[in-house]
Automatic annotation (TrEMBL):
This is Putative pre-16S rRNA nuclease. Pfam families: RuvX. Coiled coil: none annotated. It is an enzyme of class 3 (hydrolase). One of its GO terms (cellular component) is cytosol. Its EC number is 3.1.-.-. Could be a nuclease involved in processing of the 5'-end of pre-16S rRNA. InterPro entries: RNaseH-like_sf, YqgF, YqgF/RNaseH-like_dom, YqgF/RNaseH-like_dom_sf. Keywords: Cytoplasm, Hydrolase, Nuclease, Ribosome biogenesis. Belongs to the YqgF HJR family. One of its GO terms (biological process) is rRNA 5'-end processing.
């Protein structure tokens, strides 16, 4: 069992949620949501977070439909974001199917804090947690 630190991103055109996790525990914690302008974040903000946490690997949620098929507009943009992360920071990046991560994140947040917990930033970061914990689960299968 390794103890890598993994950072995950839930890519969106207006907001990009992030989470951090430890491979040894298989758990993740929400970090922050980065505002994005037409899918482009402030890269300096992401760089600060990467420098602070020093992850060994980045995981980006790959949006697909319920059948796992690529979505016409958002799937290629999420892949481009993943490629840019790799290009800018030189870290390995993996894509991970994020089907239903937003619905699961909303349900978890609602159970913890009702409607007040359902802010866009909270949802995006909790989605990143769901993506990362799902990635961990796939590792151990």
């Amino acid at each position: 069992m390794t103890s890598r630190t993994i950072m995950a991103f839930d890519y969106g055109t207006k907001s990009i949620g992030s989470a951090i996790g430890q491979e040894i525990t298989g758990t993740a914690t929400p970090l922050k949501a980065f505002k994005a302008k037409d899918g482009i974040p402030n890269w300096d903000d992401i760089e600060k977070q990467i420098k602070e946490w020093q992850p060994d690997l980045l995981v980006v949620g790959l949006p697909t439909d319920l059948h796992g098929q690529a979505l016409e507009t958002i799937t290629p943009r999420a892949k481009k974001f993943a490629n840019r992360l790799h290009g800018r920071f030189g870290l390995p990046v993996e894509l991970h199917d994020e089907r239903l991560s937003t619905a699961e994140a909303k349900a978890e947040l609602f159970s913890m804090g009702g409607y007040k917990a359902l802010s866009k930033g909270n949802i995006d970061c909790q989605s990143a947690v769901v993506i990362l914990e799902s990635w961990f689960e796939n590792l151990y299968r």
